[in-house]
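Case study 2.
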Amino acid sequence: MSKKDLIENNTPETPEGNVKKDKKPNKFIAFLKSRKAKRGTIATAIVAVFICLIILLNFVTGLLTDRFPSLQFDMTSSQSYQLQKDTSEYISKLKNDITVYVLTRESTFKSGLGASSGAQYFVQADKLLKKMDAANDKLTVKFIDLSSNPTFTGKYTNIDWNAENANNLIIVDAGDNYTALSLDDCFDYDSESYNYSGTYAYTGTKIEQAVITGILDVTTADKIGIDIITGSGEDEEHYGALQTLLKQNAYSAKEINLTTQKLRKASKIAILYAPTVDLSKDAVTKVSDWLNNGGEKGKTLIYIPMDVKTSTPNLDELLAEYGMKVSDGLAFCTSNNYVVQNPYMFLTDYKNDTYTADLKDANIPTIVYNTRNIQIKDSNKASALLSVESSVGVIPFSVDTSELKSESDLEKYKKKSVNAAAIGSDSSDSKKSNIAVFASPYMFTGTFLNTTSYNNSNYIVNFCNTVTNRGDMGITIKSAGTDEAELGVTSASTVIAIGTIFIGVIPIIILIIGLVVFIRRRIK
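Prediction:
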């Protein structure tokens, strides 16, 4: 081929005089150099960086919420994973160094300790414990695996570690003083299910009140004694919730049978809860002598009568000395501003500022059910504590209530006011003893004590603090449930599942979507 032909055909000549053949262009390299590829690369890089940021954000957030539990956001309407106000306030004011030892691995604890159901309450309890730890540097929560630390229990010689029913779960340690909290103290469970199958079906956590009770126990130097009077047909089920509440507030309660025992001289309060029979004259004498206290006075008897007709002439005589009488019959209220569910269940007004001055929130009312009326027979000695003065009355026990079919049938039983609680003193001097009558045996049952909707628990604790000159150190905490679970978290496995979704699945989905968009744009 001549040079002319080469020139005409625009074919390059090699140094050896051979004709250079055309190479097939590399489409991939050509694509990378194209404008479309450059734009696509930038888009892919942005998606990749975004995914990395999401993964990093989830990782850092997890570390921060574990390190600082207060950063956790509780989305439940009942704030099931937040410390109650009383708990936060109490812990924030701690002056003693307190260590709360949970006697198992944290992972084992969060899994429910082999629960047949209700393991979610352990997840909840774990969160609450961490928030207690974060609330004050004085309080530290530690998980101790006893199988790996067999010598740990050696320090706590006053605890019976071998008792079959001990079931110790938590140690509250204040250095010189310590106390053990059992599984029963910290969680509610279905006892029937346990008795039948031997497995725990948990229904709620009491971890807050258990730990606070433990702290009060180990930090309160002089616990005030309260005697629970027995021997007159009292039912432990009636006063059990009140006894627990007082124990949670560092009162030392002990049952005293007046048939064979005397009230303790060191006790400042005695409680006679719904006796089904009258006290004997000898028992009344023991109570009177205790109230007199050798002329030093300073004692308070809390009397809660039954809601059925009971002949109690000896008790009636004692009350008369303090200016009061429990009337025959049950009180009712028909005012819409006070009635709850039915005329025998209603709210009350506070009537004595002395016993509400340190109440945390006097705007929350107390509630009574099947209450009797307390007549003030001597206003120089007695005064009302809880009353209602709107559309109230008392129906005698002798009346057949089935015959009362309308509000007009109640007219003849109406009164100007009803006193659901009153207090009488034996003297107007500084040295005096008191008898306080709370006329509803149901107002201090668990139904009304374990709720923040009513002030029954706060009021009775504040009342006891006032008559014993203890000051405002009451704390009432209800059991926590998880009716609305935090972000659907109801078990330890759910926690893992949610973590996998947010840390793994969602970023992968975003990556796939980015690739699909990129490929579609590439095709176009």
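The CA atoms of residues 1 and 435 lie 132 Å apart.
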